[in-house]
Amino acid sequence: MKYRKLCLAICFLIGGLAISKAQDIKTKDVPAVVKAAFSKQYPNASDIDWKRSGSNYKVSFDLGKVDHKATYTPAGKTVSYGKDIPNSSLPKTIADNIRSRYPKATIDDVEWINTAGKITYKIGLDGTPDATLWYTSDGKFIKEVAD
């Protein structure tokens, strides 16, 4: 039962992030406590873009040449963070499952996401089908969203 609730919570969060009604905002409109938490965690971030999603603040940024994302509460607490990873870093069990389920598709991009210590992977597929997939860190399929 706990696993099911966790999966539902992760799906809700990821789904919310993927289809959020986020609105671009200027850095000056982000609460100081949120900016301070972000700057402390990512002092070398560049190309920083903020969005408001519900009551939370989402930030997209680069560390080196790698795209990252993080979500903060208005109090500056981290809700989730993630980064793009090379396709070759995708756990073998997930890659094998994708090849088995979607033999006519290719993996376009992979995002590693940490939500309250729970790791998930968001995988973009090109081909048949064009879709976005979510998996748990231990290779369990969460959901598919057609692109």
TrEMBL record:
**Alphabetic keyword roster:** Signal
Q: Which domain of life is it from?
A: Bacteria
Identify the residues that the record assigns to the Putative beta-lactamase-inhibitor-like PepSY-like domain, covering every copy.
20-63, 81-143
Q: Which residues form a coiled coil?
A: none
Q: Which residues form the signal peptide?
A: 1-22
Name a Pfam family for this protein: PepSY_like
Q: Does the keyword tRNA processing apply?
A: no
Q: What is this protein called?
A: Putative beta-lactamase-inhibitor-like PepSY-like domain-containing protein
Organism encoding this protein: Mucilaginibacter arboris
